[in-house]
Amino acid sequence: MFQLTLRRRGISDQAVLRTMEEVPRDLFVDEADRDGAYRDSALPIACGQTISQPFVVAYMTEQLQLRKQHRVLEIGTGSGYQAAVLSRLAGQVLTVERYRKLADAARARLEKLDCHNVEVMLGDGLNLPPNIGPFDRIIVTAAMEQIPENLVERLEVGGILIAPVGPHQGVQTLVRLTRTEGGIERRELVEVRFVPALPGVAREL
Question: Is 52 one of the annotated active-site residues of the chain?
């Protein structure tokens, strides 16, 4: 039923569908929400954050057009669920989280699932050190009012960046940027709702 729901909503990439089926989503939600882990809805997690609904995870992953040799940057680790999905489809994943509590919990879950190609980094995803990158793919899982140039600059030629862009409160548009030899191509995809991307590392939690 889980895979069928995703197919009905337009997900057609077989590798993405298989990965969504294989990654145990119930391990990434709070115990009280485990009965509803596979419903197509976002769920609350610690630190006021959320785990995105399965369709959004699958859709963003499909739009990245991942290959096994790709190096991927994720901004906003959250529960670690999106990183676990990425790990099955890409070569290396660096995921950045501003809340220590979330980063530590995600790291433990990913290790339990043998996602050894994922590095969880506590840091400010909006202000990364200059020596990090470049990447073949970048995925942002929190709402940005605009995409920072320092993220776009980390894309390899042929690279894809996908992020929810719009007001922090309300509806955003999922935007896909592709770096070509001639510059950046921008495409607007679907409307989404994400928690805001905030600067800095959280002082607590």
Answer: yes
Per-residue pLDDT of 52-110, as tens digits, reads 999 999 999 999 999 999 999 999 999 999 999 999 999 999 999 999 999 999 999 99
Residue in the structure block whose two tokens are 């790990």: 87
Instruction: Classify residue 173 as left (phi > 0), alpha (psi -120 to 50) or beta.
Output: beta
**Distance between CA 172 and CA 165 in Å, rounded?**
5
Residues 32-43 as b/e (b if ≥16 CB within 10 A, e otherwise) read ebeeebbeeebb
Pick the catalytic residue: 12, 52, 79, 87? Answer: 52
Q: At what angle do helices 81-89 and 14-22 cross, to 10 degrees?
A: 130
Residue 185 CA to its chain's centroid (Å):
21
Q: Which domains does the chain have, with CATH numbers?
A: 1-192 (3.40.50.150)
